[in-house]
Amino acid sequence: MPRKPDPTLKPAIIEKVTEHLHDTKLEAVSVRSLGRVLGTSAYPIVYHFGSRESLIDAVVDHLERDVDVLVLDPEADEDALGAWLIAVFGGLHHRERLLAARLAFELGAVETLDGRDRERLVHRGHLAALTAWCSAHGYPVPAAAEAAADAVRAARGAQWAFLVDPDETDVDAALRTVADRLVTGARCAVG
């Protein structure tokens, strides 16, 4: 009779792999190398996750667990907009938020090569949330989508700047500027 899986093993694997990824490029990660990190064979990884990609997805889900539940109310005021932008794109001085941003860039850069669309769907969700906010605050329809796209590009640009030059980049301040620009645009649109 086969053994029952240990329900504590899967979260423990995710935690250990998350810790490992703080100092490891995704391209250097394989099921075997992760098995070595865990002090075991590749079997528990394959058994619990099926593949390297599924394990990496589980790590990203773990890192984004608090961000994924955040919703931007289209009627939100300027302060709530800034807080949402910082919660979703900022906070990179925290190790897990920094790793989540780095993985978003690493995975997003190559996901279309293997037919995946996780990061694209996340990106489109951000665009939709900001477009709805802009529309609710008076932007005309085409301008709302354009302003939202500009805001997401600016937010991702601030993240990238922090990844490559953390000592010279204040992501949260840049995100507050993005919020200010959206609010200013809304005021101009309304008249």
Q: What would your notes on this structure say?
A:
It contains 9 helices and no strands. The protein is elongated and about 70 Å long. The protein starts with 8 loop residues before the first helix and ends with a helix. Helix 1 (9-21) packs across helix 4 (52-63) and helix 7 (118-136) crosses helix 8. The protein has 2 domains: 9-63, Homeodomain-like (Arc Repressor Mutant, subunit A); 78-190. The chain is 69% helix and 0% strand. GO terms for molecular function: DNA binding. Residues 30-49 bind DNA.
Helix content: 55-70%
SSE class: mainly alpha
Name the shape in a single word: elongated
Strand content: under 5%
Count every helix, treating DSSP H or I runs of 4 or more residues as helices. Answer: 9
Question: What does the largest sheet look like?
Answer: none
Gyration radius, rounded:
19 Å
> pLDDT under 50 segments (min length 5)?
none
Number of strands: 0
Task: Report the average pLDDT across residues.
Answer: 91
Distance between the termini: 73 Å
What's the number of structural domains? 2
The H-and-E topology, N to C, reads as HHHHHHHHH
